[in-house]
Specification:
Chain lengths: 475, 336
């Protein structure tokens, strides 16, 4: 009996123990299943995060910024299209009553939507039409392939690399109109350049070949066909510019740059296509031009004008220096031009005329911003609510353009008429630029220009006093 | 005008020659699929040494890895890969057909249909094989959790899928319909779809999810090598598929970058005995007979179908993996 009881008790205990083990095993399986579910959910979230990051890194970027306009770019930044624009509305006033009354005017000086961008991280392009002054001109239309920083091939219509102030953007120039040396160097032309930055930007160089334009001109002014070759000979152009302390720690010297640019051509014009320029004052009035061809009229016989006939060499040493709130820009330009004129009394007269110009510009941010050749960042923006006024800059300059005296030798047979063309223009100017923010700028300039010659009987042309103002928008 | 022509030609020539002036240092980009990281890390070092000895040039090979299909799309979208070493020919076909970056006959340019190594699909299970998984049929049992990547983005996943399809078809009474039903059940047991094979390995090995990983043979061996045989083990199914990962030079990229010669040699060198040894060391099946014989014991004997049994990659892609194909018809994410 005892044995039977013991066996029964043992079996009962074993049965109870087995049931508990089954429950434990079941519990363990359920727990593992729950753990698996949690792990799966965590992994799915992990994968979702990865997918989101991947999608984000592949999503094109759309940006609108005051500095760089409106931009669409691929996720890797290799393909970019940017819409920018420049609008400049000028007021011109001549208080001296000497300049033609019609010169007082409001003027749309620049109306330029700019489409630019980069393809495949290498190929830049820019297209800039200009709708100002009642006409449409293609200012820039070029492709630039940046194979290396020092190997950039540019083809199309763009600024010829010569004049320093000419190469400064229209939104960065400190005066409403550029100085007199710019009258001697080419503006925009059609051609090809090869160049770039070497040694981390310490050396910038470019050399190229262009259709050729007259002094201060753009190829859209070429005759008889705008934006086309006009003399069967192209201009060679080259420029090298150094910023030796660009990457140095020297605050005082970092903003120093100097260089030289120039062009050369040997071509012959005609009385119909003279290939010769006129020069304008800071007030944009013509003060010098070569004698033009006129047809016979009644008792007045026909007159042959002057035309380019041989070599034209331009060269322009240049420099700037920016330190803190102060800026200094200077350049010299010289054009050595072979000319010819045929008259009944003197026959064929030829000469090499050396016209030269120079300028010095000073600029100072009274509000403390740093001066630079390209762009700047205002310390504050104009806001009546916050009591901030933006950036205020004072500028001053002196500039001259001196035409070779030989141009006026020969009386009626001279290359230029001393009774209507001045042999020298000397000008000083002051101005204020008020940058309300990076996009809006108001400027006022006052320039006084004195002349040598240019009036009847060898007298001096009266001084020109020009008061210009500009409302500018750029983005 | 001849003057203009000369100037333009001179500038263009200068522009072309200038970048080549520094041709002593060459960089290649190899866009590859997920599990080849270790293989190419070792191979790139060997090739750089070989190329330096042969030409004196220093070549640096950059790698890009991801799901094979995803990599193909990235190359089509502009990734400047000089060479592609992908999981299956269909993905390089897509680069040829949709990206026009290399000729459609690219596969005939190198030996063995441009596949310098092969592999196959095996199972990786937890140590002791607690779910008692031995063949494809076990994968559709209730309670078995299967890890495989997404066939839409992963070449390895497509090989997995086709191996499973082939097994189901070859079962008694098997047909396309039964195979489709089998695949539907199989993917019902897949809790999570990674975009590539390496991601799936991470899910199974590091995150501890699932009971079985459908894996490249090389990936399975690598997992054992890294984790130890006490953590996971390989199960060889009764039937699998011969995976032939191909390689190709991307013509338009090498033409633009001036890297054709080194890119061609980079792929040709994969067939050399030295490279084949590296391939075997990384658990890919070498195509060189001597190297294969040397490592024969490393690779289990399996009955293998090939892509030809599916009519080639174009037909397989269209039927199974294209938008609206069989996979789209049978797959619904778990929980949806």
């Amino acid at each position: 009996m005892r044995i039977a009881t013991a066996i029964s008790a043992t079996l009962l205990l074993a049965s109870a123990g087995g049931a508990a083990a089954d429950d434990l095993s079941d519990l363990r399986e359920r727990l593992e299943a729950q753990e698996q579910k949690i792990r799966v959910l965590e992994r799915k979230l992990e994968l979702q995060d990865e997918a989101t990051k991947t999608a984000t890194s592949a999503t094109p970027v759309v940006r609108a910024s005051p500095q760089q306009g409106f931009r669409i770019q691929s996720a890797d930044g290799a393909n970019v299209v940017r819409l920018r624009g420049v609008l400049q509305f000028d007021g011109r006033y001549f208080p001296d009553d000497v300049t033609a009354a019609t010169a007082d005017t409001w003027l749309l000086r620049r109306v330029r939507p700019i489409l630019e961008g980069t393809l495949n991280g290498i190929y830049d392009f820019r297209f800039t039409p200009d709708f100002a002054q009642g006409k449409t001109v293609v200012q820039d239309a070029y492709i630039a392939a940046r194979f290396k920083p020092w190997a950039v091939l540019t083809a199309g219509k763009f600024k010829v690399p010569v004049g320093l102030e000419r190469l400064q953007s229209a939104t960065d120039i400190r005066f409403i109109e550029r100085g007199l040396p710019t009258s001697l160097v080419p503006n925009r032309d059609l051609g090809v350049t090869f160049g770039g930055d070497a040694a981390g930007g310490v050396v910038n160089y470019a050399f190229g070949y262009f259709n050729g334009v007259s002094d201060g001109g753009s190829s859209d002014g070429n005759t008889p066909t705008p934006d086309a070759e006009n003399d069967t000979k192209g201009d060679w152009a080259a420029r090298v510019f150094f910023q030796p302390f660009l990457n140095s720690d020297s605050f005082a010297l970092r903003g120093l740059g100097f260089g030289i640019g120039g062009t050369y051509v040997d071509s012959t014009g005609s009385t119909a296509t003279t290939l010769l320029p006129s020069y304008r004052t800071p007030g944009q009035q013509t003060f010098f031009s070569y004698r033009a061809t006129t047809a016979a009229s009644g008792a007045t016989p026909a007159v042959n004008g002057t035309f380019a006939d041989g070599e034209r060499l331009r060269w322009s040493p240049q420099a700037y220096y920016y330190v803190g709130s102060f800026g200094l820009l200077g350049e010299y330009a010289n054009v050595s031009q072979d000319v010819t004129r045929t008259t009944a009394t003197a026959g064929v007269r030829s000469a090499t005329l050396d016209n030269k110009a120079w300028q010095v510009q000073l600029s100072w941010f009274a509000t403390g911003e740093d001066e630079s050749f390209r762009g700047f960042t205002p310390g504050s923006v104009f806001s009546l609510e916050n009591g901030t006024w933006g950036a205020l800059e004072f500028v001053a300059r002196y500039h001259e353009l001196d035409v070779d005296d030989d141009a006026f030798v020969g009386g009626a047979d001279s290359f230029a008429n001393p009774d209507s063309s001045a042999s020298k223009a000397s000008a000083w100017g002051v101005g204020i630029n008020w940058y309300l923010n990076q996009n809006y700028k108001w400027s006022i300039n006052y320039d006084v220009t004195s002349f040598e010659g240019g009036a009847v009987g060898g007298a001096d042309r009266p001084d020109e006093r020009a008061l210009f103002t500009r409302f500018g928008l750029q983005f | 005008m001849s003057n203009y022509f000369r100037i333009v030609a001179a500038c263009a020539l200068l522009a072309l020659v200038a970048p080549l002036a520094q041709a002593k240092d060459v960089t290649l980009l190899n866009a590859s699929y997920d599990p080849t990281r270790e293989l190419y890390e070792q191979y790139n070092a060997a090739f750089a040494k070989y190329w330096k000895g042969k030409t004196g040039e220093t070549v640096t090979i950059k790698q890009s890895h991801g799901g094979s299909g995803k990599q193909a799309r990235t190359v089509i979208d502009g990734l400047p890969a000089d060479v592609v070493t992908l999981a299956l020919a269909g993905d390089i076909d897509a680069i040829a057909a949709n990206g026009k970056l290399l000729p459609v006959n690219w596969q005939s340019r190198l030996p063995h249909n441009s596949s310098p190594y092969t592999s196959t699909i095996v199972f990786l299970v937890r140590k002791g094989n607690p779910k008692n998984i031995h063949d494809w049929g076990d994968l559709v049992r209730s309670g078995v959790s299967v890890i495989t990547p997404n066939p839409k983005t992963s070449g390895g996943a497509r090989w997995n899928y086709l191996a499973a399809w082939a097994w189901a078809q070859q079962q008694p009474g098997g047909s396309d319909a039964t195979a489709k039903e089998y695949i539907r059940k199989l993917f019902k047991n897949v809790p999570v779809l990674d975009t590539g094979a390496r991601g799936a390995t991470t899910t199974f090995v590091q995150r501890g999810i699932g009971d079985v990983l459908l894996a490249w043979e090389n990936e399975a061996f690598l997992s054992i090598k890294e984790l130890g045989a006490d953590k996971v083990e390989i199960v060889v199914p009764s039937l699998s598929i011969l995976a032939e990962p191909p390689v190709a030079v991307v013509d338009k990229v090498v033409l633009r970058r001036g890297t054709r010669e080194v890119a061609n040699e980079y792929l040709k060198y994969l067939y050399s005995p030295e490279a084949q040894e590296i391939i075997a060391q990384n658990f890919y099946r070498p195509i060189d007979e001597q190297v294969a014989a040397k490592h024969a014991r490393q690779f289990p004997q399996i009955k293998l179908v090939t892509i030809k049994d599916f009519g080639g990659w174009t037909a397989a892609q269209k039927l199974h993996f294209a938008d609206g194909g069989v996979f789209d018809q049978i797959y619904a994410p778990s929980g949806s």
